[in-house]
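#structure-requests
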Amino acid sequence: MQLAVELEELGTRIIDASKFLEHAEEELSQRIIGQRDVIRRVFIAMLVNGHILLEGVPGLAKTLIVSTFAAAMNLKFQRIQFTPDMLPADLVGTMIYNPKEMEFYPRKGPVFANVILADEINRSPAKVQSALLEAMQERQVTIGSQTFPLQEPFMVLATQNPIEHEGTYMLPEAQVDRFMMKVIVDYPSYDEELEIMLRSATNASKAPVKAVVQSGDIFQARGLIDRIYVDPRVQRYIVDLVVATRVPAQYGMPELAAMIEYGASPRASIFLLLASKAHAFLQHRPYITPEDVKAIVYDTLRHRIRPGYEAEAENIKPSDIIRQILQHVQVP
């Protein structure tokens, strides 16, 4: 009885506290046609302090989505174009010598912002990727012998082009695993593309974006998301989905064992729980349902499953493996 009262009170607060996301989504729709699922995933990552890897061919408005999101959320935005000749100092900054004072002082790099667009991240060498990794994981940057905390909220949205391989560096598994979600940015529908074409020919596509959110709104939402109720059966369902990527035979899928080289790490369980909570928040609910988990599971697991040789030979993708796991793992 006490839990029901608490959830009802929390639900009321969530409805009120989530209104800023509706305003932000409305503002984004002034510039972005379609891509609603992508925008929702960006909201989810921001609400639970996560990072996103955006994958899609050129011209699908990945950069526009991120820059418009930052402007609507009233957050400092930095776009960093990753290139093969890039150095870690180009990202985090460096120590500059002042001959007047006869001492070194730090010059901070572009990573010191709230929303970082790491454009074509797979074009940068390993040293640059490792520098970004510290910022993503530790929320801090080391310049010389000094360590500087990054201002919250802080999130990295990295893009990569799936059709270009020349001059690229494959992201190491350790870094890919740090991204809460890997979101596939797909082509717009026929009607959406028609509207994009017509709108781009007018000044409507260049209308300034209004800042409709304050950082306090984000922190308040994060506090409420922490309180969202998760039934023990749903907790076990999340863990079952993740463990099934490692030992599918235990869940009645022995044929998948040869298809998976390695499965998702425990970080996947953590991120799947957090993302499910944020999804419930977007639905104005003070508790998680299995549907919240299913809605976000592909984005959370697809980059944490490496298909084996047999899967590649049969053109079986991580999404196909996740689909089979969803069909076999019992839903509470």
